[in-house]
Design a protein that fits this description.
seven-stranded mixed beta sheet
Length: 804
Amino acid sequence: MTSEFSTLLRRLRREAGMTQEALAERAGVGVRTIRGLETGERADPRVTTVRLLADALGLSPGEREDLLAAAVRRAGGESRPDESTGEEGRPDDTTGRPGPDARDAGDADDVRDAGGRPGSALHETLADIAEQLAQTVAARWQREEEQRQVHDPYPLPVRWQPVAEELTDHWANIRRLPAGGTHGPMDLSGKLDEIVGVYRRIPSGRLVVLGRSGSGKTILTVRFVLDYLKSRGRTEAVPVIFSIGSWDPTAITFRDWLAAQLTRDHPGLAAPGPGGSSLAAALVETGRVLPVLDGFDEIAGGLRRPALEALNATTLPLLLTSRPTEYAAAVAETDVLTSAAAVELTDLALSDLADYLPRTTRKARGGALPTTAWDPVLSELRRRPHSRAGAQLAAVLTTPLMVTLARAVYSDTPDNDPASLLDTRRFSSPEELEDHLLDNFTATVYRPRPQHLPDSGPRRTFDPERAQYWLGYLAHHLTRLDTPNLEWWRLGCGLRRSTRTLVTALVICVAIGLVDGAVGTLFDSLEYQLADGLAAGILSGLLFGIAYWFMVAAKNAAVEPSGVRMKIFGREGKTRRGPLRRLAIGLLCGLVFGVGYGFVRGALNGVLSHVSLPTVLAVGLGDGLIYGLVFALAAGPTFGLLALFETPLDIRSAVNPVSLLRTNCRTVATQLLVWAPAFGLLVGFGSMAVMQPMAAILGPVVWNLTAALKLGVISGLGGAVGYALSLTAWGQWAVFSRLWLPLTGRLPWPLVAFLEDAYQRGVLRQAGAVYQFRHARLQHHLARAYGSARVLRRATGPGRGTVA
């Protein structure tokens, strides 16, 4: 049965001179959908579909409103939960724009694959995955908000106001009006619990939140994600927070970077998706992820302009936070963020401090009225706001960061009196006051406390001075890498590439030397095996070091954590890394390693036998050829075998730094259990099979079953150890974070416990699979203090801070 909407849509289409097929193609929906809407067979048109039709028809603002009103009346006057109507009848969909990514995900007939065929099954699969992602994101940030004590006793007020017009795009673009459409600015002012409502009123779905350091931008993004997820419909995009400061737009595209970050924090999304891409890439490409980009100002200075240009090359809805100065500088170099509205966070008022600070500390005993240690300070700020002391402190306590630091130093520590903040002889400027709060924050949170969390066991205690030194090194490490993300697998990347290579080679040399010496005593005398273990360790360290240099260090890269797990029985799916590709890689690596190992070993034996140089070279080349064949024929099948046992992680899996480390440790352990016996057996039997044919070519070869067994056992164990330490993320963690950096005093020996303790104390925060400092300001302060301590230590000699 036809309706007002059906009649109006058919009339508008005919007036535009379009067929149903032409309208379907231009709007990006199915022809069957158009027919159903015009005949009345489809009685519940979605608002997002109606908007796409209006864009395709080129309707005027009045005609658009008439069409939308008719659609709402046809559906019974109510929109679906996931398509609330915003200002001027504009649908608050998650895409906020026409085009492929804006197709109505709720209408299965509208979703088509690359070949134009209906994609309802694909849609449902991705919708289920997005729903699982939403659940894990909500759980993660709910825990993080609780950990940061945002609601203790209540969230600090975060408010905003419109910014200067030169930092926003044209309002016609923001409102997504057709050509010729004009309209004035929108009122976007609000406060923390209104952020989702404000965002939904923006037709383009693009918002920039500016605020100076510590003004509450990160807290706002967390609240935005949690509130958005509470009202999110099944077909809406999932808001995900990304620390954009780690993005290099000159090295990777924006969408690829989003997919990589999703995979890092949700390893299950690395599983193959439609068209051979990963599930993470499929979610990004189909508009099922709403990027919440925190920290545009933390992008390296020379990369902000290309970053903004790359963002303007997309029409993805997003929320972006930045400090005003850095964003304004990038805008001056190129342009504003296309179709984006912008707001700026405002300072806290004295009334906010008066409401908040007294509730964070104990009441003073005695007196007719309950008072706190903050009351005299707040009274001084009210009575003498223009005094030097009052003006300085008022200027400092205008951001949530400084207020929470003041709370930690004075409210949570009864022995400290906040009245000292008014001492102008001690603090001659606001900057000195801020440095004082930053300096004392770590000392305060590391003060000895007898209590601990229920069921958590006794809390570790760390000396405050040593803790600050170790935190300073971590901050310095992040500053050198120019990233806010503290990734456990990159802790060695702050060292020079030559140092990384030498340390890796040294650790492998010692490890394989010990393996060779210990196992070899089962076959030969102790004296011979000590010499053989020394030679094997040096040769293996040298060759693995060379391989590490070319595969990792020369690229100034890090070995990334594995996105798969090893499951020998009952595999649940396939990974993208096929066994044939791994077989080829194994053959090549085994050949190179075997030739090098055999040549050096043969040449060394020739030198020890005091033969002529030509004979030494001939022996070396012969042994190199033999060992090259043996190791190639063993390494290739072994690498291929590993690929057969790899299975994707669970799609619902979300990680934190410790769980990712443990997962990779288990994966590497399982790989070694497969690698060592498989490689050892192939080397042992392969050597017996290769020796006889090679003897016919090279002459007599001394070889027997005992020698083959010894080579197989040592090669299996030694090869597994060398591979794990040099070419896995867990091995690099063990080499640098568990050995070298603690040995040199830069980090503590119980590093995992130290990082988790810093997180529990509020110095660090978790952002998916990585740690970050509580605030960039704290990171920069600790890095600067560490640099000063290094200069002082060089001048005076090693001090207490270097003792691990």
